[in-house]
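Changelog entry: the HAD-like domain-containing protein record was regenerated in this release. Current contents:
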Amino acid sequence: MAKITTLLLDCDNTLVLSEDLAFEGCADLINEIAASKKVPLQAPFTGPDLIVEFVGQNFRGMMVSLQKRYGFDLPPAELDDCVRREEDVVIAKLQEKLAPCPGVDAELARLAASGRYRLAVVSSSALRRVRASIEKVGQDKYFGEHVYSAATSLPTPTSKPDPAIYLWAMDKMGVKPRECVAVEDSKSGTLSGTRAGIKVVGYVGPYPEAEKEKMEKVLAEAGAVVIMRDWSEFESILAKIESGSV
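Regenerated structure tokens:
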């Protein structure tokens, strides 16, 4: 059994409670783009609409999907401009209201104090947004340079569930999948980690109580080896993975 040396953590709604704020900003911008392209939406998008459909994906991935669905075109330069605008809108919201996920700060402090693991952030979101998020809540001290973005870090931008960002992070950190554990809150993120060969802990803490049971099944079906409802459980979950019982 390989020793676990590296913990790869998703950012949005895993480290910080950002999804509602981010999707609120995304919805405003998507509705503006749809209007400019004369896309016949049945109703304007809302933040909750986008969360249901696109949680775990980045804005570029959303726009690629919406272009296919509604048959409109955003040339590459225009898409790049929209991505930059979305970053600005979302970062402004995050800097105003962002909070950490319950219990995560205590667990990060415990893990750092143990000296047993290297910690990294592995996200679909743009690097500027991820850094703004962890800096806002004071978590950046735990990760240093090990903050990786599918939208920004890779030679070709992508989004989870593509495993590319996990493979990139492991390459940069010089570790193998068997040495890593990932924590993810979405189906796309769980698939990304699993497809990279990593054992994934599925985290459902930020979901409304009425949705937790459903999301536990979704994440388990996507490959999560164990489900976590609260960060206070992580120490015992990690011990089980390290012992080989999970």
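The two ends are 12 Å apart (CA to CA).
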